[in-house]
Each structure stands twice: as C-alpha cells, then as structure tokens.
Amino acid sequence: MRNKLSTLFTLVLLLSSQIWALAQTIREIEINPANPVAGQSFTVTLKGDFPSACYSLNYVNATISAGNYLDLNIQVNQSAGPCAAVVTPFTFTRTFHGGLNTPGFYCLRFFGGLNVNTSDSKCFNVLPPPHYGTICNVSFPTIYCGSTVSGNNNFEPNRLTYYECEYGDRELKSGEKVYRLEVDRYTEVRLDMKILDNVDLDMFLIKEVCKPNQPYYKVKPYDCLAQAKINPVNSKERNIEINLEVGSYLVIIDGETNYDRGRFTLTTECGYRDLCTKAAIVNCGDKLLNQSTINGRNDVWSYTCGTGVFESEGNDRVYKIKLDKPTKLFVEMNILSSGQDLQLTLIKGEICPDLYREVHSVPAEFCLGRSPESGAKSNRRTILQDLPAGTYYIAVDARMAMTQGNYNIFFQCDPVPCGLSVVPSVLDFTSAGGAKTLTINTSRGFSTYPTQSWLDLSPRSANTGGTTKVSVLRKSDSGSRQESITFTCGTESQTVLVTQAGSCKPNAFFTVSKSTNQVIISAPAQDSSTYSWKFSNGQTSNKAVDTIDLLAGVYRLCLTVTNKCGTATSCQLVRVAGFATASDLSSLERPKLSQARLYPNPTNGEAFVEFDLPQAGRAQIQVFDLSGREVSKGMSLQLDKGVNQTKLSVDPLQRGVYLVRVTLAEGSWTEKLVVE
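and the corresponding structure tokens:
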C-alpha cells in the first residue's frame, strides 16, 4: 500500500511540473508591422498562460547576437501568494523605438523562463528603407483652420535630421509626423500641440518646400517660418502664433532623440486676437460683475496717451460701446483683487477701420484718456468724458505681466447726479467703545473701501438710493491713528476722517482729477482745519475742494493743512497734457531708474544684469514666471556708485519666458528673459 501511494505522489509531482512548464508557454507571437523597414519602430506582442495569478513578466533587455537573432530577456517573476492554481492568460507587448538599423532576416529567441509552443513565426524581415532623403516622397494628411487631430510619430522614419530655426540649429533624431496646412485667407494662425506621453516633441512650421525631383532633408532658415514655444504654465504644451497668407504650409512634429516618440493632439485655430476683434460689446447702463483678466492674453502692448507711453505686459480685456448721440460717458471700475493695479483706457473707434488690420498698440491720435495710476492706494478707476456720437473702445490692462485680477465695471451715459451726502464728516473714537454710525444719502447707491486694516464697515456699499446707516467698528483700541474713508457714487465722492484715541493730526493727502479743461483738487474734510494750496505758477486756493483752470504744462502742487494738532504738507507733480479730452494727469512724480540692461537674451546658461548707479546703495534682483510666482531665490546686493554687473544663473529654470525685476532706492525696472 505504501509503495502505491509513493508511486501516485511521484506521478502527481511529475504532472504538476509539466503543467507548470506548459502554463508558462507563449502560444501566440505577433510582430507589427510584420516586416518593418530599417529604422522603423515595431512592436512584439506575446500571448500565453501562467499557472496562477502569482506570476508576472518583467522586460530586462534585448540584444542582437550572431546569426541575426533578436534575443529577448524577459524574466518570469513569482510572488509569494497565496494564489489559486488556475491557469491565467497573459499578454505582453514591447515596442522597439527606432527599430533595427540593418536590413536582414531576424529571429526571436527568449530567455528568462518562457517556453514557446506555437506555430507562429518567430522570424521576420527587416526591409531596406526607401529613399527617405526627402519628406516630399510621402503623402501628408491635410489640416485646416478649426481642425483638431490626434497623431503620433511612433512608426515614422527619420527623414528630416537638421533644423535651422529661430531658436538655433538643432539635430533631431526621431521620426517626424508631417501635416499639410491649408490657409484660405490672410489670418493669424494658432497651432497648439499637447503631448500625451512622457516624451520631448518639438513643432515647426515651414514653407511648402516640396518641388519635383528636388530632395529635402534639412530645414533651412529661409524655409522655417516658426518654431513652437513651450507653454510656461504647462511644459507638455507647444504653441505657434503667426500671420499667414493664403497658401499651403507644412507642420512638422519631431523629437529630440530616437526615443522621443509618442502621442499628441494638434489644434489649429485662425482669426485675429487683437484690440479690435477681442472686444466685447456693451451698452449704456451695463453693470458687469466679476470680470477677470486672469487666464487671459496680452494683446494690447502699449498706449501713447498725452505725452507718455504706457507699456502694458499684463493680460487685457476690451469693451466696445456705440453712442448714438453726444454723451457724457462715465466708466467706473472697482477692483476686487487686493493689490492688483488695473487701469482703464478710452480709445477712439476709428482705430479699427476693418478686420484685416491687427491693432496691438494705441497711438496718441486714438487715445482719449487713461485713468491715473494709483497703485494699491485705491481700488477704484474712473474715466469721465464728453463724447460725440460714435464707437469707442475701453481697455482694462496692467503694466506688469503678473498683475491679474477680478473687477466690476459699469458704463453710464449722461449719469444722473447722485446727490451724495455723508454725515458726520469726522468720526472720533476718543475712548474704548462700540461702533459709530455714518448716515449716507444718495439717489442710486454708493461704494467705499477703507485703505487701512483697523476699521470694519457694514455695509460697504448699496445698490439702490435712499438713506443708509453705515456702522464703523474698530478692530483694535490700541494706539493713536487716523484714516480717511472715501464714499463714491457715480462721479461724486465725499471723504470722512476717522480718528482714534484723540488723534487729530492734520492729513495733507490729496487727489487730483480732471473734468473737461479744468483740474479738480480735493483734500479730505477735516474739522477745524485750514487749507493752503500753492501751484508752481503762483496760483493758490484755500478750499478743501476747488476747481482750477490750468494751461498745458507741468506744475508742482503743494497742500498745507493746519489744525490745533499741528501742520502737514504734501506735494505732487501735476502734468496737464496738451490735447483737449484726455485724462492726462500723472498724479505723482516717479523717479527715473538708472540705465539697465539684461544680456544675453535669449540665453541658455547664464545672464548678466548691468545698471549704472548715481550713488552707492542696495539692489534687489528677483525672477518671476508669467503667473507672478517667484522662481528663484532673490538676491540683495550692496552696490557701488557707477556701472555694476551681476551674474544671474538660469540653470535651474526650464525653457520659457520669465520676468527679471531690479529694485533700487530710485525705482524698479523689469525686463523679459527668454530661457532656451
């Protein structure tokens, strides 16, 4: 009996080992394409069975051995389990990018524990390549404006090997995917490629270069129209923007190395995106809430208004309004994003005569006015102009690329007087206590935003007219301080002075605005105070608010305020431009920054910042990306008088566009830096 059991156990072990061996067998082999061309990628797919789910395959490597064998080292791994002894099918696929370079007859051999039990051929031919010295021997798919295609360059041979384009000479060793782009009208074309795999693909736009009996294997500078830029926000996106005439063009997707082969999508959009075509139509009385320049575009690059040129690197929004009769147009913008210095510009409609002219800059003859720049001091921007019937554009923009934000904007025509009244004009918190109350009367609502953080107002605004009680509450009781709060309704405003702990020192802060050809000077209302205004041309005033007639020119304006607590004086430089209807005051003289330059630009390793200082002092150098994020540690340097040069390392930065800011005691300077 014992011998019978021993024999049976031996048979079971023998059968188990045979089943295990058979269950690791390759039953199907597929090579795609069946006979690849030399240099062409191909895939090997294996199908078979494991004795249980505890087994898996791990590709190790592949080598070419004598006799034209392609030896595949594929390791069979077994996990600890437990796993049921159930035959488990498997499929294993491996792509050989770039294929085999030498034509011939090859056979597969397997190492690592796999058995082969199939009648499928383990051998294949690698064919000699056709004449790929020119891309013109191949039929290209055609793309048009508005199309989106999905593609890959996995199985494309390497026909174009060298590119001389705008970002320097490049040798690309991957296979290229080529599309023929047909453009049926003169237009701006935007090509957007999104890379779907972990590969590095580039995109080029070249002329239609295919001519009979002329090989083409190298892109020359005179044929290259554009090379894609890397999206600074998403490194997997490549973009080209260019104006094209009617005709045919070639779009080429190529990779840096033979392993840069993968999937992508390509979207083609046509049509202008400039001041004229991006404008949204508005009407008198429109109130647009929660507008935004975030995630927008910078399509209007500069404004020449009055005597100044305003360079604009921030994203912009444009509105178009048509006036059927002579109208007093009042545009009011309230910025909702803290610290974002957005501006308004009023532009004549004649700047856009037709849709075939791109407008990215506003010359002086078209600029009707620009809201004064006030930095973070106020969130309110306004333009008030008497205008004849016609079409006008209103642009919302910013000087800095990092300045982006949300805002509300209102368009009023021949605005009805508000009759704004705020009482009392002074609130004094002389001791610890609760809230105080302001009474506001208007015909159609009001708004206000305190400039300091120690006060809470409720409500801050009202959308309808009537009487509103505003509660003013201190957040803390410590210290002696004061603040001016300005309430606005349409074109009218009124200021309340709030003091704490008996603080009554005079406030000499003032604002300057313009109505038609008169300058309006305004100081906050302060009890028991006297006002003394002095212009550099000899004109004077002793009112808190006054209207002064001034000829075109530059004036120094000083205000002295005196009360029982003392005297305060402040001065500003007022510039009155020489054209009739512009908002043409620059409220504060800005010191000029010494000469500065950034070079080399573009760069791929290091850059230098050079500036000339009139005196010794400290300088801070910072680098930002286009979203406003500081991407490298800022430098604070003590510099000598005269020319100073500082090295700026860009090695940690990816390819893209950055902003370099130099801040000195005399001002700041910002310049774009392109890293290749």
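(Above: one complete record from the training split.) Residues 427 and 498 are 5 Å apart (CA to CA).
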